[in-house]
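Figure 3 (text version): structure tokens given as input.
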């Protein structure tokens, strides 16, 4: 959500009043609630499959430590609270948060369960990146929608991360029978297919980002080497034995990755609000011989 909030602030004049910050806090809280609802239904419906995973079988739901009826009740309560708060913020925000909930439903619930469909599992999960960007955007302005280029870029970097996670999973499990029982989509993947898709997602992310920064904020071109480094380092991590890309909550232990992310975030914030005219002059075509 944060990138959506920050990018929206350069496209419109923001009134940093008390009401604005209250709306911001309530909006972030409502999105966290809907995301929690999605994670709740994910844990419940994934439990029979997680029992086939060497690590995930130890989680509370697949290990039988959680009452499923209470889990479903929690899911419903979270939906009511999350959407209720969203409705009082603004309609575009409410509809986008509803879309986030619907995508979680389609991702997890049969007969849709897009997580079991090869490639669609990555695409349908990573679109949540773009949805969260829109949610951040609509907390700042509802006068217009963000450029399509930044929406696609944010979607594709999410797809890159998700495909890298799939690569880490099949390398860790390394047993076709176990893979098939754990997740149907994984049984259709190979390392070659995943690496090919990863290159596609990373390339589309790069092109879409370039379109956005050239058209709207040229200073962000200074992020290019750091974003490229992030992609390279993340790929390297995905090839580690029992790669932490399988468990995003463990990635904070990857110090190099964390440092790169911090540099990117700090530079992103700074470059959004400064102008460096010399940059456009450097990249402006010139006639060498007159």
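Below: residues designed for each position.
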């Amino acid at each position: 959500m944060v990138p959506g909030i920050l990018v929206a602030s350069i496209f419109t004049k923001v009134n940093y009043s008390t009401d604005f910050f209250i709306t911001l806090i309530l909006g972030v809280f409502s999105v966290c609630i809907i995301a929690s609802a999605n994670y709740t239904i994910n844990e419940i419906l994934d439990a029979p499959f997680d029992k086939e995973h060497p690590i995930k079988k130890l989680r509370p739901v697949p290990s039988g430590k959680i009452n499923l009826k209470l889990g479903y009740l929690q899911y419903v309560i979270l939906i009511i609270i999350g959407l209720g708060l969203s409705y009082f913020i603004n309609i575009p925000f409410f509809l986008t948060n509803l879309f986030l909930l619907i995508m979680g439903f389609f991702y997890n619930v049969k007969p849709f369960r897009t997580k079991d469909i090869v490639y669609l599992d990555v695409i349908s999960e990573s679109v949540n990146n773009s949805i969260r960007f829109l949610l951040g955007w609509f907390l700042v302005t509802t006068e217009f929608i963000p450029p399509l280029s930044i929406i696609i870029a944010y979607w594709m970097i999410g797809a890159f991360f998700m495909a890298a996670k799939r690569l880490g999973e099949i390398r860790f499990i390394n047993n076709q029978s176990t893979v098939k029982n754990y997740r149907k989509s994984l049984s259709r993947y190979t390392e070659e297919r995943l690496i090919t898709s990863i290159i596609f997602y990373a390339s589309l992310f790069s092109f879409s980002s370039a379109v956005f920064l050239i058209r709207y904020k040229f200073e962000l071109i200074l992020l290019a080497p750091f974003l490229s480094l992030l992609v390279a380092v993340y790929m390297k991590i995905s090839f580690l034995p029992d790669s932490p890309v399988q468990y995003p909550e463990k990635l904070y232990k990857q110090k190099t990755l964390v440092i790169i992310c911090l540099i990117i975030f700090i530079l992103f914030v700074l470059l959004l609000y400064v102008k460096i005219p010399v940059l456009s002059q450097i990249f402006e075509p010139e006639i060498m011989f007159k």
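The chain has a mean pLDDT of 89.
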